[in-house]
Structure formats: C-alpha cells, structure tokens
Amino acid sequence: MMKWWGWGAYDVSFPMDQKPNLWPWARTKLGLEVERSTPPVERASLRFASPVMNDAFVGALAAAVPHAECSSSDEDRLHHAYGKSYPNLWRARCGDLGRLPDLVVRPSSREDVESILALAHAHEACVIPFGGGTNIVGGVDPLLGERRMIVCLDLRRMNRVVSVDRYAMTAVIQAGASGPELEQQLQKHGLSLGHFPDSFEYSTLGGWLATRSAGMQSDAYGRIEDMVVSVTMATPMGVIETRPVPASSAGPDLNRVVVGSEGVLGVIVEATMRVHAAPAAKDYRGLLFRSFSDGVAAIHDCLRAGIRPSMIRLQDEGETELAFRMKAPPKGLSGLLQGGVKAYLARSGYARPCIMVIGFEGQPADVRRLRVQALRVMKRRGAFPLGASVGGAWSKDKYNMPYLRDYIMDRGVMCDVSETSATWDKVVDVHARTIAAVEELFREEQGGHGVVGCHISHTYDTGACLYFTYAARQIEGRELDQYYRYKRRITDGFMQSGAALTHHHAVGTEHRPWMEQEVSSTGLRALRGLKAALDPKGIMNPGKLIPDEGKTAQPPP
Amino acid sequence: MMKWWGWGAYDVSFPMDQKPNLWPWARTKLGLEVERSTPPVERASLRFASPVMNDAFVGALAAAVPHAECSSSDEDRLHHAYGKSYPNLWRARCGDLGRLPDLVVRPSSREDVESILALAHAHEACVIPFGGGTNIVGGVDPLLGERRMIVCLDLRRMNRVVSVDRYAMTAVIQAGASGPELEQQLQKHGLSLGHFPDSFEYSTLGGWLATRSAGMQSDAYGRIEDMVVSVTMATPMGVIETRPVPASSAGPDLNRVVVGSEGVLGVIVEATMRVHAAPAAKDYRGLLFRSFSDGVAAIHDCLRAGIRPSMIRLQDEGETELAFRMKAPPKGLSGLLQGGVKAYLARSGYARPCIMVIGFEGQPADVRRLRVQALRVMKRRGAFPLGASVGGAWSKDKYNMPYLRDYIMDRGVMCDVSETSATWDKVVDVHARTIAAVEELFREEQGGHGVVGCHISHTYDTGACLYFTYAARQIEGRELDQYYRYKRRITDGFMQSGAALTHHHAVGTEHRPWMEQEVSSTGLRALRGLKAALDPKGIMNPGKLIPDEGKTAQPPP
Hints:
The structure is a homodimer. Chain A is of the alpha+beta class. The first copy, chain A, has four domains: 102 residues, Uridine Diphospho-n-acetylenolpyruvylglucosamine Reductase, domain 2; 117 residues, Uridine Diphospho-n-acetylenolpyruvylglucosamine Reductase, domain 3 (2-Layer Sandwich), CATH 3.30.465; 118 residues, Vanillyl-alcohol Oxidase, Chain A, domain 3 (3-Layer(aba) Sandwich), CATH 3.40.462.40; 133 residues, GMP Synthetase, Chain A, domain 3 (2-Layer Sandwich), CATH 3.30.300. In chain A, the strands form four sheets. A seven-stranded antiparallel β-sheet of chain A has the order 15-12-14-13-17-18-16, with helices on both faces. In chain A, strands 5-6-10-8-9 form a five-stranded antiparallel β-sheet. Chain A is globular and about 75 Å long. The relative contact order of chain A is 0.13. Chains A, B: Pfam families: FAD-oxidase_C (PF02913), FAD_binding_4 (PF01565). Chains A, B: Its cofactor is FAD. Chains A, B: GO terms for molecular function: alkylglycerone-phosphate synthase activity; FAD binding. Chains A, B: One of its GO terms (biological process) is lipid biosynthetic process.
C-alpha cells in the first residue's frame, strides 16, 4: 500500500541527501526565506465516518461470491479513498478524507467481477474500480455527497499474465497486474510490454487502459491503446468482449471505447496485448541545445528524416536547471573539468541550455545506425553531446519525481503537473504561453517566486506532448483555491491555443469541466449514450469523465 | 458515374484482349463447356417506382438550403441505388433495382449537411450518405420495404483539400474527395495521404473513414483510422467535432467512434488527416516461394527482424496461377528462356509456386537497405527473386480486378471476395480451412469446378489480412442462394477459427448477421446506445451495421 498522505511505499522517500545542491537552490527560487514545516496530520487523528451499508447488496454478495475478500476496515478504506492528485494529498494531509468508500472488495476472477457488477446494478450500489491508486486527476475518488453505498473494487489480486503467444507476439494479461508484476512475468518469456509510465512501479494494466496511458517508451512501442489486441470489460449490463484479431473493420472499434472509459462504463478485467522481444541493445545519450526551440526543431528534423528514436525527452531551460541541481556536485579534477566545460558552453551560446535525453533500443546494428543518423541531424541544430552518463542519471531518477512532491509539500509548497499535446506548428507557442501564464501567476501571488519547467515527453509524426511541472509557496488558508487558479489558467490556455485537454493523465474530476470544449457537446451526447446503455442506473464511478447534463461545467471546489 | 450494372466508367472494361491466356484457362477451371451469355438487361427496360416524397421535408429543404442540388431523375436514382456487391450487381443485371432512393441531394458544405440532417430528423426522412458508391457489403443500399422517404446524400461536391500544414504534416480534407482528387491536390504540395484501396479510383475519404478502410500501402502509412487527427461528423442531434491534436487521453477516442460508423450515426463531412512527403524512391520486387506457408514464414521472419516493407502481397498457389495466366505469353528468345526457368523451378520444388510482391518506399538509402535486409531474410525461406518486372505487372493491373468480375458475370459466372484477418499463429490454418471450405462447395455444387485463391494483403506485428477470391458457375435460378451459401460457409469458418469478421470491407448488410458474434451482445448494446443518442429516430442509413434488437441474426435473402 502507498502512503495515505503521499507517494510510494511507507519506507521510501526522496533521496534529498544525495542531492545537496537541490534544496538550497529551490528554496531561493521559491522565496522560502522562512521554511515552514507542514507535515500531514497524525494517522491517529483521522476520523472515519461509519460505512454506508446496503444490506441487500452485502447479503447477496456474500451468498454469490463467498470467496471474495471484503473489508470495511479503516486501513482499507483509507488506502482506497482517493488517488494522488495535489488536492487529494493536500486534503489527506489536513485529515480530510472526503467521502470514504464503504467496502473494499478484492475479486479474483472475471466471474467475480461480473457477479459483483450484476448485484451492484440490482441493488444500486456504486462501484469504483481501483488498481494502483496512482491517478492524479481525481479518477478514483468517491463523489462527495454520494448517499448510495460505495464499493471500491480493488483488482490487485488479478495480476497474472494468463498466457503468451510468442509467434503472434501477444499476451493475455489480467487488469490488476502492476507494471513490475507483468514485466517480471513476461521477462520469463524474454518479452516485454514496453509500457513505462512515471507511475510504473504502482499502476496497473487496467488503470493504463482506463486512462489511455502513455509511457516513457511510447515513441517506440505506442501508447497503451496501440498495444491492445482485444479487451474484456464487465459492465452492469454484461460483458463487452472483443476478439483478438490484428485488425478489423467491423464497425467502430470497441477496444477504443473501452480504453479511456475511466471506470464509468465498466470494469476492465483482462486484455490481450501486443508484446515485444526484450531489446538486445539500449543506448541512451544526453545532448545540450542552446534553446528549447532549437531542441524542438531538432526533433522535428529527425522525425521528418524518418529517424524514430525509442525515446526523446527534451527539457526546457527551467527543467534543465532543475536537472543540473539534482546532480551531486563533482569533486576534484572532474569538478574542475566540468567547470571548464561549463564556462566554454556559456561562451558558445549555451548559457541557459536545454538537455535532451535520447534513447535507442533494438538490435545492436539498428541502434548504432539510428543513433549516428539522429545525432548527425541534431548537430545541425546545435546539439552538444553530453555522452551516455546523462541518460544514466535520468534513468536512475526516472521514478523518483513523485516522491519529491511529498518532500516539498512537507515544507509548505504546492507542486503540480499539467500535460498536453499539440501539433508541431503549435508546440513552441503552447510552451511559451504556458510558461508565461505560470510566471504571471507567480508574480500575482508569490512575488514572482516559483519554479516552472517543461519537457517534451512523447513525440508523434504530427506533434508532441508538453509536460509542465510547477511549484510555488502555498498560500496559507486557501491552498486549494490557489491550485485551482493555476489549473484553470493553464488548462484554459491549452484549450485556447489548440492544444489537448490532456495527453496521458486522463479526465477524472479535474479535467471534466473542459470535456465539452474538448469533444463538443454532441461528442458528450455520444459518451452519455454509451453510459446510458451500459450503466443505466449510473452506478459506475459516478462523477468522473462525463459532465452532468445541463450543469454548467465548473472546476471542482 | 459508374456503370449501373458493374464497376467503373462506362467506357472502361477489363482488357481481356491483352491477356489471351486467361479466359481459356479460366473456362476450363470453371467447367464452362458451353459458355453462356448473361448480359445485364437493357437500360430501357428498367422500371422506376415513383419516389416517395415527404412534402414537409422537401419544402423545408428548399427553403433552408436553396442552393443544394436535388434530383429525383431516374438517372440519379439509378446511380445511387446500391453499391457494388455481387448481390447488388446480380439484381441490377436482372433489372431488380430494389428500393430506390427518392431524392439525391448534393450538399456543398458542412452547413448544408447540418441543415439537411436537422430537417430529416424533424420530418423523419431517412438519409444515406453516399461517396463513390463502391461499397461491396450493402452499405449504401436503401432498406427494402422502407416506407419513409429516402434521401441519398451524395458528398461528391465536397471534394477539396481545404488546407495543408506542411510543418505538422496534416491536411484538412472534405469527405467527398475521391482518391485521385485528394492525391492530386496534395501532390501540389509534394504530399500524399498514402491510402490506396482497390477502389481508389472512385471511393472517397468519407467512405474510407466510414468503413475503416485499409489500402495497399497501409503497412507503411497505417489504416485509415491511424491517419485521422480529427474529424467532423454531422448527426441528427448536432455535430461531433474532435480537436486536431496529436494524441489525447480525454476519454474514449471519439475519432474511433466516428471511424467505422458506416453512416448509421451521422455523415462525416471533413477530417484532418496525417499526410506524408511523396516518397523519393520506390522499389517493388517479385519473389517466388515453394509454398504459401513458406511465404508466410518469410513475412513473419521479416517482421520479427524489425524489417517493415511498405507493402507485402503474398499470393497463394491458386492466385499465383491466376497471375501467371494474366501475363501475356512471352515471345521468341525470352519465351524460350522463361520456359527454361520454369522447368528449372519445377525441378527445384517450385512446381506450384507462390508469388510475393514486396515494395519499399522512402529515402533511396533506406529503400536499398531495407530491400537488402528483407531479401536476405526471405531467401532463408526459399525466396527465388523474380526482379522488378513482377512488381510492375502487379502495379499495372492493381485497379483492374473489379472489372474482371463484370467480364465473367457476363458469362454466367459468380465471383466474390471475402477478407479477414488472423493472428500469426492462425494465418496458415485459416487459409487452409477457407480454401478447403470453398473447394468443398465447388464439389457440392459445381462438380468440383471453380477458381479460388487468396493473398495476404496487409501485415501487422500480430498477424495479417487474408483476402480470398473465388468464382464458380452460376446456378441458374438460384444465383443469390448460391452466393449466400458461400458467404455463410466462409464467414462461419472465419468466426469459428478465431479470424475477424472483416478486415477492411466493413459490415453493411452482408456481415451484419455476424456482428453479435464479433463484438459480443454487450458490445452491440454499446453501439445501440450510440445510435440512440445520436440518431434517436433511426433515420441514418437504416438496416446497416447494427443488427435489430431481439431479431435472430440471419444472412440477408
């Protein structure tokens, strides 16, 4: 179980001691002359409202699925009460647990899930599917004010790779398998799914599918929806099951109706996924660019030349500074050398440089060829090679960033991320506008203090994902207002400049106010039609994804 | 306009005179000791039922869209009365025009389409979207017995490439643009959509999207759904409009709800599509394999080695024989030489060989490298190189095959195609079973006479498309029974062996009886939910794609 007030296991925290340059720099940037201490409330002080029990449902469940693990313990309710958004963690730290789920049920098979949904439908109990609980857009939070019983369906017992077909390169995987669990099972066959989102250590296949996730290697292996061959989703009205064929023209693709459905239509129980041979060779390199726009142009050149690295991650000036501060200071001779290089770079126009990490995976010969081709193209845009160590440093820290948020939330600082995608013609503009908008908020609210940066995390033929991270001093007493002010300003900016509402974090409650703008009102009508057909009583994950009809869309309180 | 009784323009027919070896061979195979002459009935003998006129709708239309081109002429109704399936053409040739559309309307803008649908919804007139009219699964045929007025919405006036963004590599294209029209407009920018289905000369972007089409170059550029960036579809309840972003996780992908909707949800009016630079180099080669399974193994080896040609087309023994008969006989020395090569090949195990055409497009260096790599891998499976001329021969005839059907239908022969896809573990088995099933029908009905063959037309990491073509003497007096006997036997076989209902021909009326098996009953419920939300009165393309609720699924009469 993850910390109820933060990210990751209870015995893991951000390794700040290994990064002596980071916090002093961040304190100055954030304007923390006086460092506050804002730890979460004590566990013992948490108050648990009595669970709502729908006795007819509970009785029927005990009779129909006697082996299902059911729990209403404080411990289980607490650890299934919300995801890991900033508002989730802020409230939890204050001891505000919101509307707790009433019962946590852990099914062990598709049949269990089918039975539970049929009973929940019959007895009007709400069901929230729950995988790793890593959602950061409010996707697993019970709706405040919900009077019906809320059942949290924890899929983590369904964590097996059921079968593998090495000739077709497909694997049938249960929805509750976490990243490490499924990769470990596939590894025995020399295979990999190739899906590595930031939440990899905790999140599950079902969660990835439900939120249309993208991973760090998606440039090579595709987004999660590109990997789906077939899928099984239990709904209150029966099971949607698609057939495992490589391609079809039999009507609208129901795999894509299931993917992204965020638990509002049903519970994904299993999927047949494309898998890949574990790559024989990997090569990750660091490059330095004089500016973000030079880096963007270099990526664009590369893709247009038909060169597709497995991963391209371009950090802007702000994030690059953060990355440099994350490094341990070099000692002795290497310190002197690095100082010299730095001075040389500053003189050569790299005064506020941008780091790119570029990765190649596959057969050794292909890796070598692609790397040479890519670097040749990128050098024309001023790429300065940093060698393989930067790639290693990035790889070492890649799953650490969520822990950093806890560290700074302990010290009175707000920290959040916003991600979008835009076509190439808009990438530089959306970046500049968003950074400007956040800096304006820093000026309005924090006297200009704050940290903001962005990286390109995924690239496509038509455009790229822009991933923004920002941190600012909390405004005491109105911490959530402050967060929503940022959220609204940034997201409105995305919509106005033609960028996506969300690239891989999904909708949940946090992006729901913009769904009508994103998919058009008739698009919403289509989604509501699906919901009405599959969940006519509205028991599935209420209050997520699809805005209520007729209500004005407002960001949550 | 295409021939009302066959394929293509009135002044084009199959160039049988250039293929002197073909018909004598086919006659023997088909058992046509006596060649019948079965031309279509005379145009003058056709009888046109009076159009049903919904006066309220017609009046409102004239007031709201005065510039819309409307016609109830016999000529227009005839040329919009059905697609190009075997039953369509058989009936037409007999003078049975079915339920003709009552009015052909040619809108010129999105606004026109919106107005027409709103009026049709208000006055309960049916609407059938019509592009090139090339559908071969009954997708544009008015429903027999429909009493409401039927409006055929011919999109062909909306045939422009509206805008091009060379940096993002996207183009906004109107739905009514045919293959040649849109490629010509893109060519001015040095671009190509890269979508070349067999029907390319006539079919339209809207039709491709509505049917989830795949083209000859889909291995390189993806299926039509992979190319969609955003789409605009008018429905009776308003316009679904997605936003042109490279990737999104904002709920189920509505692009994929629109793609494959076959006109039953609305009318696709426009889409933003990914486009590509016209390739600098092309290289098409022929190879010969000792057996179909050797060829399949060679493709599989190739893909597993990470080598992805732009096109791979592997013909089985039956289709290869047909292909050889299509060639003009070589004369003089080259004839002698070819005879020698043939004898040598027969001695070396290529007695019943299989032709593969393999194509590479892109930068010259990449084309060369990929070709060398692919041929090296394929030679290990016994590939015998035939050089570039086979590729040329294939390319020359690639749009000719639909004309051949008319030629043989004039001579008392049934001819149809069935396509499916299967994962690699099943490809050889599905091929063998299907060929065996058709040959069994030949024995049951035609004393063993008939022509059947198959080719792999599209490949994927997980599997391939199998495309079967078969021809047999018509059974006089029960020609449609005969066709549906084949259709049912083959399609049941696909479903039983885990292959797709259809890979790129879509559902229409012909595959509708199998839709429940294909997408599950709850999957159908989802589709019905979409239909109810967007077309509550059921005016959009009635009787297609989604089986009627509660009715037993039966193949059409």
